[in-house]
């Protein structure tokens, strides 16, 4: 028995969609799985080299948690070759993809026949919110709410380029959450939610200029987290008249500019020259989530 699991990276929040909006992108975590006489993780990407190769591996722990959920005591031992395009702790859903991969690993090994909704609920229970895990399962853009159960709206994304700007340092989610205010006033909350509401409408209508204008107006998290990103203001100033808008991906430190393909192709070389210390990628949304072949 040999199979491959591929899980797309995700970008979350998308401005004011804090903990509730995410989009799948064309970077992948890939597992090549083969039944064996013992469990072994083989990491084929350099940035994975320090991860455990035994049962303490996070992906295996999620698979075991999934097995326990469905009252199965033993996972068949296997050799799992892991490759990943997704950098750690950069706001591109690396932990969410590992959660989804672990659930799918158990699903395949144990023939659980989980539905997409069941995978989303289990992943959300583990992660705490659906913004990253739901698009990793479903693909496209997912707008989600979690309170014991998960409600999601799935929106395919087309004709939008994600200019992804990755600083050379990690930012842990817990550190990014530590700078957020404990509460907002009623008037601030109304204003912040109105920005989020129109952002959702713009996504549903594929109105990228409106979404681009709104992502930078977020009041939920970006005003507080930008101080943790040394180049944010300079990048925003350099790009803002040439793209739809710029936002922090997830908890950061990755920044993403929403752009047309034409805008990205026209200016990418210039942006790279202006900010050589940052890694630049042009990514696309993918409308298929985790898949097995």
Automatic annotation (TrEMBL):
GO terms for molecular function: ATP binding; homoserine kinase activity. Pfam families: GHMP_kinases_C, GHMP_kinases_N. InterPro entries: GHMP_kinase_C_dom, GHMP_kinase_C_sf, GHMP_kinase_N_dom, GHMP_knse_ATP-bd_CS, Homoserine_kinase, Ribosomal_Su5_D2-typ_SF, Ribsml_uS5_D2-typ_fold_subgr. ATP binds at residues 87-97. It is an enzyme of class 2 (transferase). Its EC number is 2.7.1.39. One of its GO terms (biological process) is threonine biosynthetic process. It is found in: Cytoplasm. GO terms for cellular component: cytoplasm. Residues 200-276 form the GHMP kinase C-terminal domain. Its main location: cytoplasm. Keywords: Amino-acid biosynthesis, ATP-binding, Cytoplasm, Kinase, Nucleotide-binding, Threonine biosynthesis, Transferase. Pathway: Amino-acid biosynthesis; L-threonine biosynthesis; L-threonine from L-aspartate: step 4/5. The keyword Kinase applies. Transmembrane segments: none annotated. The keyword ATP-binding applies. Residues 57-140 form the GHMP kinase N-terminal domain. It comes from the Bacteria. It catalyses: L-homoserine + ATP = O-phospho-L-homoserine + ADP + H(+). NCBIfam families: thrB. HAMAP family: Homoser_kinase. Catalyzes the ATP-dependent phosphorylation of L-homoserine to L-homoserine phosphate. Belongs to the GHMP kinase family. Homoserine kinase subfamily. This is Homoserine kinase. It comes from Amphibacillus xylanus (strain ATCC 51415 / DSM 6626 / JCM 7361 / LMG 17667 / NBRC 15112 / Ep01). The gene is thrB.
